[in-house]
Design brief:
The complex is a heterodimer of chains A (about 160) and B (about 775). Chain A is an alpha+beta fold and about 160 residues long. Chain A has a single domain, classed as Immunoglobulin-like (Sandwich). In chain A, about 15% of the residues lie in helices and about 30% in strands. In chain A, strands 2-8-7-4-5 form a 5-stranded mixed β-sheet. The longest helix of chain A has 21 residues. Chain A is elongated. The two termini of chain B are about 25 Å apart. The N terminus and C terminus of chain B are likely disordered. Chain B contains 29 helices and 10 strands. Chain B has about 775 residues and is an alpha/beta fold. In chain B, the strands form 2 sheets. In chain B, strands 6-7-8-3-9-10 form a 6-stranded mixed β-sheet, sandwiched between helices. Chain B has a 4-stranded antiparallel β-sheet with strand order 2-1-4-5. Chain B folds into 2 domains: about 425 residues, MFS general substrate transporter like domains (Growth Hormone, Chain: A, Up-down Bundle); about 240 residues, Rossmann fold, CATH 3.40.50. The chains are: A alpha+beta (about 160), B alpha/beta (about 775). Chains A and B meet through helix 1, strand 7 and strand 8 of A and helix 5, helix 8, helix 11, helix 14 and helix 18 of B.
Chain lengths: ~160, ~775
């Protein structure tokens, strides 16, 4: 009986420990962040290549990370976190460089607009629409992600089949 | 005078092993008295079965009282259905939140999309699989209400905690925890509803409960919309809000108390029987209480359950991928974005709520008249629903498409109570949680996975519309499966009732002081796959008796032994041992209860030494080392020939010695009932004589023996009671010497020879 109690206690401690590891109470955003408003493309708007991404920003003087169809790095992590552990880029100083980012359609800019020349197709067949998702997150001057705010917009690219 | 009819529950006293004329006459008188008793029991059982059908709600009339009247006369309220409905309405909040807010969550936490999809998949698997251990928790004690409420509080807290995760590990943890907690809705809710409400209201109550599931489908997206648009909250705020709503639902359900297993049906049937035969409320022996896997296996042996679960798998094949492909279809064919799709998903459940409201009363009528009618309707509904969805793919106008899909999904909603109630009704009350869990595994697990694989290929070739259209094929096939279930449901319902009636009768007999036989097999049917080999077999063995089970090759003798020892489970009938029903108890547990079988051929472990053969069986029996060693030494004292070969490998023994070693295990295990299959096969007469002497000694020490033999002269030299089997049926049950007066049975070549042999005064081989 005593052994069972010990095991139960140990299990409880383990579960609490795991939850404590995966959860937090400070620094979380429960209210929506309106510092960035995406102006173009519009929600579910159809665009043709090349197209312009445009947004407005207030109360923020860092730079912006713009990604298409992928998730950004975790909050408070540098750009380097986007590079996977087994990517050769990691071995190079200054990783990720501009070319690495361009190849993956990831853009870092202090401006509030961007011209996109091309994006890989996301649709699985010609009958489907080529839907994409644009995500903008905030970076500080060292290229580290600021907070967990992310500004998302879905749009469609019309292509000549 | 042979008996081939319904076999007795009452024990008969047979004489010792040596046949004798006066004891035979006495035996015959007893047998005649038994036969009269059997006829009376059969008539009573039939009457009680009819009363039992009425008790479980199948009146044959289709008359339905209003819910208000039913509740008033039964002294129950709407509260349990309302409380469970509220819980099922909020149980999917966590999944809905994760699905709708996926882009925001992955972006905020920096989680890869494949990793996020994996978390959702794991959660689905956990919900499906966790239903089984939850069923195991409630199988022996009626604490389902406690489980419902505790898990509801748990998932409310976990849903709120999802708003505080900071990494994928945190997300995985809360998803698994939510999955485990919400699994209770799969396994426990519907069985609990069935025990809260009397059978005459169940279709309506289950429809009412099911409508709350649709309410949840509407409420989830609405909470997301309200939090993000009106209250300007992030996904974190959404989960906290959902957790708070779920917490209120859990508080609302906290007054639920378990009504006990089968309050309105199986226990009611027992009460009817008790009133008829006048008995008290003794509990079944805990020794033969079925475990989790035994219950699951027993349920899968019910033909109607197998068919309905197969139909569930097809329904899962339709619904799980359909909801995914529907989103793509709406996007591709109608250009609907996420907002419009969410609105569509929030509107279609309204059709389901209306359909469930309309269906309740009609479904109740059908069930009360005949459960088969409800299943036939389910088959029809499946075909209609899938046809409507298929037509929706080609609808030229948006409104027509919404109507087609909405109505099709509404028809599918109605199918849930229409399929579930007949299935739950044919299972004993304490096994229904397992059925709920199996329903989830077959629906979401087997069906959902198969559907996604199937539709993935079709989608690549024919597009999303083609994929949805292709669902019509399994849908219509499933309709036919349900019609098949309709053909067996009444038989299975009667079997369940017969089991309860028999159990109560046996208890009543025991209480009246009637001596019960050690073993009573009743109406045993057994099949190997589709091949039925036993047909309504009745077989009884008394304490201290040696019984011969004779018959031609392939008559089913060895199969009957397998059913008794638990190596084979019957499709129908009961096996009672020392008064308790052990029909579905595991073979290993039966050894512990005192039943051992020596299989045909050489029943030894060839690569092990003689002494180890005896020792290993002792350990199987779970006895302590000293007792085992003492038993082995006693065996060697009794059988010096084995003692001489104690260090030899069993494979090096002669055939007779191996059979002797097999029999010697009985001295170590000391069973109450020993089943010996083909003792004399391939052995010299002198060896057979030695073995028969061993059998007599085993019997003299108090072990009842069933001796399966093809050789009549061998068998009848040690028994006074014999059974003769032919083509899976008992053709003779009576005094051994009478068998020789039945040339119709002894026509087989080997028996003719045996008959000639037995004409001699000394029947020994």
């Amino acid at each position: 009986m005593r052994t069972r109690s010990v095991w139960r206690g140990a299990l409880l401690v383990l579960v609490i420990g795991l939850f404590a590891q995966g959860c937090a109470v400070n620094g979380l955003s429960f209210a929506q962040d309106h510092r960035v408003e995406i102006e173009a493309p519009g929600t579910n708007a159809t665009v043709r290549l090349p197209f312009e991404v445009r947004w407005t920003a207030k109360d923020f003087d860092g730079s912006f990370l713009v990604l298409f169809d992928r998730s950004p790095m975790r909050p408070d992590r540098p750009l380097r976190s986007l590079v996977s552990e087994n990517d050769p880029c990691r071995a190079r100083p200054g990783c990720p460089d501009a070319k690495w980012l361009d190849d993956r359609h990831i853009y870092v800019t202090a401006d509030t607009h961007l011209l996109v020349d091309d994006l890989p197709e996301e649709r699985t067949n010609n009958r489907a629409k080529d839907r994409h998702e644009l995500t903008i997150v905030l970076l500080d001057k060292q290229g580290t992600r600021v907070g967990e705010s992310a500004f998302i917009r879905e749009f469609i690219i019309e292509r000549d089949d | 005078m042979a008996r081939t009819g319904r076999r007795v529950l009452v024990a008969r006293r047979t004489g010792a092993a040596t046949p004798d004329e006066s004891s035979d006459e006495q035996h015959l008188l007893e047998i005649r008295a038994e036969e009269e008793a059997v006829e009376a029991v059969a008539a009573a059982t039939s009457r009680l079965r009819d009363a039992g059908r009425e008790a479980v709600g199948v009146t044959g009339t289709g008359e339905v009282r209003s819910l208000r009247e039913t509740f008033a006369s039964s002294g129950i309220s709407i509260y349990p259905a309302l409380a469970l409905g509220l819980l099922v309405a909020v149980d999917q909040f966590s999944t809905q939140g994760l699905t709708i807010m996926a882009p925001e969550i992955t972006s905020a936490l920096g989680i890869d999309r494949p990793a996020f999809a994996l978390v959702l998949l794991i959660k689905t698997l956990v919900v499906t699989l966790a239903a089984l251990p939850l069923a195991a928790i409630v199988q022996n004690r009626p604490r389902r209400a406690l489980v419902c409420v505790a898990t509801a509080f748990a998932w409310a807290v976990v849903t709120a905690m999802t708003g505080f995760v900071i990494s994928i590990w945190g997300l995985l943890l809360v998803s698994v925890a939510a999955g485990i907690a919400t699994a209770s809705t799969r396994s426990v809710h519907q069985p609990l509803l069935l025990d809260f409400y009397p059978p005459e209201s169940r279709v309506r109550v289950m429809s009412f409960y099911r409508a709350f599931d649709n309410v949840g489908d509407i409420a989830g997206p609405l909470i997301v919309g309200a939090c993000t648009v009106l209250l300007d909250r992030t996904w974190r705020g959404v989960f906290v809000a959902m957790g708070v709503v779920a917490l209120f639902a859990a508080i609302a359900g906290s007054r639920l108390r378990d009504p006990g297993f089968g309050k309105w049906d199986t226990e009611k049937v027992r009460r009817v029987v008790r009133a008829d035969v006048g008995r008290s409320d003794d509990l079944a022996p805990s020794e033969v209480q079925l475990g989790f896997f035994e219950i699951t296996r027993r349920l899968m042996l019910i033909p109607t359950v197998r068919r309905i679960l197969a139909a569930w798998a097809v329904l899962g094949m339709l619904l799980a991928p359909f909801l995914t492909y529907l989103a793509f279809f709406l996007q591709e064919s109608w250009g609907m974005g996420p907002g419009a799709r969410s609105l569509f998903n929030a509107v279609t459940p309204v059709f389901g709520i209306i359909a469930l409201r309309l269906f309740g009363h009609r479904g109740e009528e059908l069930f009360r008249r005949d459960p088969a009618q409800l299943l036939r309707l389910s088959g029809l509904l499946m075909a209609v629903g899938i046809t409507l969805i298929a037509l929706g793919v080609f609808a030229p106008v948006f409104l027509a498409m919404v109507l087609m899909f909405g109505t099709g999904l509404a028809v599918m909603s109605v199918m849930v109570p229409a399929m579930s109630l007949p299935m739950y009704s044919i299972a004993p009350a304490h096994m229904r949680a397992h059925l709920g869990a199996l329903q989830g595994i077959f629906g979401a697990g087997v069906g959902g996975t198969a559907g996604l694989l199937l539709l993935g290929g079709i989608d690549r070739r024919f597009g999303t519309a083609g994929a949805i259209l292709s669902l019509a094929i399994p849908g219509i096939a499933s309709g036919f499966v349900l019609r098949g279930a309709a053909r067996t449901v009444n038989t299975d319902l009667d079997r369940m009732l017969d089991t309860i009636v028999e159990e109560e009768e046996v208890r009543a007999l025991a209480e009246k002081g009637v001596r019960l036989p050690m073993l009573a097999c009743r109406n045993i049917d057994f099949s190997y796959g589709q091949l039925q080999v036993l047909f309504g077999v009745n077989f009884t063995v008394d304490d201290g008796e040696i019984v011969a089970l004779l018959g031609t090759n392939g008559a089913g003798k060895s199969t009957l032994l397998r059913v008794i020892s638990g190596l084979g489970l019957p499709n129908r009938g009961t096996v009672r041992y020392r008064g308790a029903d052990i029909t579905y108890v595991d073979a290993e547990r039966r050894v512990g209860l005192g039943i051992s079988q020596i299989p045909g051929g050489r029943a030894v472990f060839g690569p092990m030494r003689v002494v180890d053969n005896l020792r290993v069986l002792g350990y199987t029996h779970g006895r302590n080392r000293k007792a085992i060693e003492a038993g082995i030494e006693a065996t060697f004292d009794a059988f010096p020939r084995l003692a001489e070969r104690r260090g030899q490998f069993a494979s090096t023994l002669s055939g007779g010695e191996q059979q002797m070693l097999g029999l010697a295990t009985a001295f170590v295990v000391r069973p109450r009932l020993l089943l010996i299959d083909e003792l004399s096969l391939g052995l010299a007469p002198v060896v057979v004589g030695e073995l028969l002497e061993m059998v007599r000694r085993i019997n003299a020490e108090g072990t009842s023996v069933v001796l399966v033999e093809q050789s009549v002269n061998v068998a009848l030299s040690v028994v006074s009671h014999a059974y003769f089997m032919e083509k899976g049926e008992i053709r003779f049950d009576g005094v051994a010497s009478e068998l020789l007066e039945r040339p119709d049975l002894l026509r087989s070549v080997f028996l003719e020879g045996a008959s000639k042999g037995l004409a001699a005064p000394t029947p020994n081989a």
